[in-house]
Write a structure and sequence with these properties.
Elements (H helix, E strand, L loop, with lengths): L11 H20 L1 H7 L4 E7 L6 H20 L8 E7 L4 H13 L5 E3 L4 H14 L2 E4 L16 E3 L4 H16 L2 E7 L2 H15 L4 E7 L7 H10 L3 E4 L3 H13 L7 E6 L2 H4 L10 E4 L11 H12 L5 H20 L4 H8 L6 H4 L6 E2 L6 E2 L1 E7 L11 E8 H4 L14
Parallel strand pairs: 1-2, 1-3, 3-4, 4-5, 6-7, 6-8, 8-9, 9-10
Antiparallel strand pairs: 10-13, 11-12, 13-14
Helix pairs in contact: 1-2, 3-12, 4-5, 6-7, 12-13
């Protein structure tokens, strides 16, 4: 142990010296950039709630990984307004009550500037309402249900992933054209599945199609009864609208029942995390990808993909992109507004076009002013088994559908109002 010299009482001269030093620091706040930066060392806090346990845990983990990459890159460039970003992550455990509790903690105890969440649309909707109540800027990376930026839109809430209507509209005509108008739905019975299935049925009925639709609990693992019914109905297409582990289980059982020869597979989302977790025979069908990693010639995509693979040893997915865009959007808004106030950030973000190194796809990608929904492309195409030596090559893009075409503003039901 090192002996310490006893503390000496401050004499009058030392007190005056200390006071002069403090006065100098106070004056330097205005004139010295170095001192300003030093005083701004308290980080700008971002709070993310996602289901790190439960059926959506793999998707949530990807969102967190993408967000953390963005935080790291932004901090290496000096942060925002001379301050580092800090990402605080809470587990909603795929439970609405837990998600609400965690978002309140982030706002009331951790005093975050921006909140994010959740993969689960029901939780995403609930915590967006809390953020609206608290007047905090809130960004929804991956909760799809329409009302968030539709009839229940709020001035402080923005969304990155597509609406369910956007995803259904982008792929419906392709499924009808390729396979026919007789469909069987297996859909999760909560906000995401309900609005997604409704959008698909609207499109199918518009062309005189027929269907059987089943709504099942989100955590369903045994799909045998539903698949037996589907086989008896003899649809052209089975639309597996489940997500995460439930979708994986359904796909595996579809193959075990020998149904691939009887009907096509298709629907809205079959995310890369899920495709890579099923047998080769189930790596099939026509689907949407909300972002895709293989875009030769598009600036900055390769750097992002390489960074994700280096960090995670996994392919870059739409979920990685959602988290990455969410953090970058907040940083861009802060720098533009030169403020941490939610209303200033919301005004800065409304209508903002993402720069190419964040958009990571062709065309103009921007937050629509009228409803705060991000307007990217929808990547529609075919899932297929990977060729030898190329394990992440499991999707061929058929068409880039512009978001404005898939989700016209007139159909959203949003009437945006900012506080006066």
């Amino acid at each position: 142990m090192v002996a310490r010299e006893p503390a000496r009482p401050l004499g009058r001269r030392r007190v005056l010296q200390a006071g002069a030093a403090l006065g100098a620091v106070g004056a330097a706040q205005i004139t010295s950039p170095f001192i300003v930066k030093a005083l701004g060392e308290e980080p700008v806090k971002l709070g993310l709630v996602d289901p790190l346990t439960g059926v959506y845990s793999v998707l949530a983990t990807s969102e967190v990984e993408g967000a953390r990459l963005a935080v790291e890159q932004i901090n290496k460039k000096g942060g925002v307004m001379g301050r580092e970003l800090q990402l605080l992550v809470e587990d909603s455990a795929n439970d609405v009550g837990t998600g609400v509790q965690k978002i309140r903690k982030l706002i009331d105890q951790d005093h975050v500037t921006v909140t994010y969440g959740d993969v689960n649309s029901g939780i995403a909707y609930a915590i967006s309402q809390v953020a609206a109540e608290k007047g905090v800027l809130h960004i929804v990376p991956g909760g799809h249900t329409d009302p968030i930026t539709g009839k229940d839109c709020s001035w402080n809430v923005f969304r990155i992933c597509n609406t369910t209507a956007m995803d259904a509209n982008a792929i419906s005509s392709l499924l009808i054209k390729k396979f026919g108008k007789r469909w069987y739905f297996i859909t999760p019975d909560y906000a995401y599945g309900q609005t997604l299935q409704a959008a698909f049925i609207k499109n199918l009925e518009a062309v005189g199609g027929t269907y059987v639709a089943e709504l099942l609990p989100l955590a369903t693992s045994d799909f045998s009864a539903s698949l037996i019914k589907a086989k008896a109905f003899k649809p052209n297409v089975l639309l597996n609208n489940m997500g995460g582990l439930a979708q994986i289980d359904c796909m595996k059982q579809f193959i075990e029942f020998g149904m691939a020869k009887d009907m096509a597979l298709g629907g809205a989302l079959y995310e890369i995390e899920s495709v890579l977790a099923v047998p080769r025979e189930a790596q099939a069908g026509w689907w949407d990808m909300e972002w895709w990693w293989d875009q030769p010639g598009v600036p900055h995509v390769k750097e992002f993909v390489d960074a994700i693979v280096a960090r995670t040893k996994k392919p870059a997915s739409a979920r990685h992109w959602f988290g990455y865009v969410g953090v970058n959007a907040a940083a861009l808004a802060i720098e533009k507004a030169k403020s941490l106030k939610a209303i200033d950030l919301a005004h800065a973000l409304a209508g903002m076009e993402l720069p190419p190194e964040v958009a990571l796809q062709p065309g103009k990608v921007y937050f629509r002013t009228e409803d705060h929904e991000l307007m990217p492309n929808v990547f529609t195409g075919e899932v297929h088994p990977p060729p030898a030596g190329d394990p992440y090559n499991i999707f061929k893009v058929a068409e880039l559908v512009p978001a404005e075409k898939a989700d016209p503003l007139a159909s959203t039901g949003c009437h945006m109002k900012f506080p006066s």
